[in-house]
Write a structure and sequence with these properties.
60s Ribosomal Protein L30, Chain: A, alpha/beta
Length: about 500
């Protein structure tokens, strides 16, 4: 009988979460590099380059790939011959490992988990509790998969109880436009089919733990219905032309994963859970000999890619920017921002809108300013701020018109597309929306030279900061006329792909 000590499980979970915070799996790096080599849309290729450069920087600097260091999901398969040396529950041991990982001084990870989700939404401070699934299985070891899932991609999950005769491929393709680009493609789609509602969602999440192997499947061919679906969906999803970051291009997904389970004769439950460019998961086994060993990957696993500024780049001084200058920007332009940049996301936006409704003055003057949708990681060492990539912009859409019309805000920086309400508000107020690359948080942070909390410090990572940035790279995603690259780009590349087929 194998004896597993509490400290070995706790330490293994801690080490695993630190490990995946800065190391991408090699299969992901290889697939992303292949997508980079294949991509023909310059904007999408540039986005993939930033993701790969960021990944290598994180591997060398041991800092988070993304500022959203995720909500932890753990799958634990416990051998029935295992005995535990502990007085704690399995969940308590896992959560202790999570707590230590997210508060490790050498690489503090952002705490994003909120208790009382429909009430006070109070940050638990250490990213606990995790989402934990356990199974008792034959054997004398404990197998554990640890993953950290970003909120932006998790928010795009979809579920439906289809009729038995409904077509799964048709349903997935119908959902894809509704998901937008907030899940940070290119990534993976995990699809669960069967069981009950909760089982389908679990299958979709678990499928994302499997390695990227779609090319190998293409070479050998499908041997069952799930593999047939994978191949069909892989081709059809990439034919949509959504592309990296939703900018249009040849690669929208690196792989499609499908898991199924027997279901009731009257049902066909189907779930989609996307995985973003911050793919973070690792598998290890405890056999009673001590904590898991997680070997560091070789830097040779990462391609040598450089990001170069194109000839048509606009260099912008945020401290002396005028509405007239912003109206000269064109959709798709690359802009390098320098100067003072405010930040704010969901909680800060809600508080500001509430204050405006009450006639109260805001703690910051937004006139002719830009606000960056971000919740950064705490700094370590000599950093002025930790990884600070953008969060999904559509969550701020309902606040956009009020802020633009009531404060004189000039523009916004975020991730992925804007919805119709925000685009109308941007057009009506002659403002602009800029897109930063999701999944390149450590790279973006190198452009931030100073960071100071200037309002709402009680909101933690959702407080309003003032950043001083130097040559922060962004793309004009919605111009002052309301033209959006997230509409024109995918439409153009869907047509190009269709013509080639």
């Amino acid at each position: 009988m194998t004896v597993i000590r509490e400290q070995d499980l706790v330490q293994s979970v801690t080490d695993a979460l630190q490990y995946i915070s800065y190391y991408h799996p090699k299969d992901f790096i290889d697939a992303m590099h292949a997508a980079y080599e294949r991509e023909e849309n310059p904007a999408a290729r540039d986005a993939i380059a930033q993701i790969l450069i960021n990944s290598r920087m994180c591997a060398t600097g041991h800092r988070p790939i993304c500022q959203d260091t995720g909500i932890v999901t753990v799958f634990v398969h416990v051998g029935m011959n295992v005995r535990w040396e502990t007085n704690s529950s399995l969940d308590d041991m896992v959560n202790e490992g999570v707590r230590r990982a997210y508060t490790l001084p050498e690489n503090v990870l952002r705490a994003s988990v909120l208790a009382d989700p429909d009430g006070a939404r109070r940050n638990t401070g250490d990213n606990t509790p995790a989402i934990i699934h356990h199974k008792l299985v034959p054997g004398d070891t404990v197998e554990i998969h640890v993953a950290a899932k970003g909120g932006g991609s998790e928010a795009k999950s979809k579920f439906a109880m289809l009729n038995p005769s409904d077509n799964v491929v048709d349903w997935v393709l119908e959902q894809l436009p509704k998901m937008g680009a907030g899940w940070c493609p290119p990534g993976m789609l995990g699809i669960g089919i069967g069981g009950t509602a909760e089982k389908a969602m679990e299958l979709a999440k678990e499928s994302l733990l499997d390695p990227i192997d779609i090319q190998a499947l293409k070479d050998r061919g499908a041997s069952n219905r799930a593999e047939t679906l994978r191949l069909e969906l892989f081709d059809k999803v990439n034919q949509t032309g959504i592309g990296a970051q939703g900018l249009g291009g040849l690669t929208t997904v690196l792989d499609i994963k499908v898991k199924d389970y027997p279901t009731h004769a009257a049902n066909k439950p189907v779930a989609i859970i996307p995985n973003c460019a911050a793919t973070r998961h690792v598998h290890f086994t405890l056999d009673g000999t001590g904590p898991a060993e997680l070997p560091a990957p070789k830097l040779d696993d990462w391609p040598e890619i450089t990001w170069e500024v194109g000839e048509g780049v606009r260099r912008v001084d945020l401290d002396n920017l005028t509405p007239e200058a912003v109206r000269e920007w064109q959709p798709g332009d690359t802009v390098l921002l320098s100067g003072k940049l405010l930040t704010g996301r969901d909680a800060a936006h809600k508080r500001m809108v509430d204050m405006l409704a009450k006639g109260e003055p805001l703690p910051v003057d937004l006139k002719n300013r830009f606000i960056y949708y971000v919740g950064p990681v705490d700094p370590v060492g000599d950093e002025v701020v930790g990884p600070a990539g953008p969060t999904t912009a559509t969550r701020m859409d309902k606040f956009t018109r009020t802020l633009l019309e009531s404060t004189g805000l000039l523009g916004m920086v975020g991730k992925a597309e804007r919805g119709p309400l925000a685009i109308e508000a941007i057009r009506d107020n002659q403002a602009v929306y800029l897109m930063a690359v999701g999944g390149a948080a450590y790279l973006v942070a190198q452009a931030i030279k100073k960071a100071e909390v200037v309002a709402f410090d009680d909101l933690g990572m959702e407080a309003i900061y003032e950043f001083e940035v130097e040559d922060m790279p962004v793309t004009v995603a919605v111009d002052h006329l309301g033209d959006s690259v997230h509409q024109t780009g995918p439409a153009k590349w869907k047509e190009i792909i269709a013509e080639r087929l």
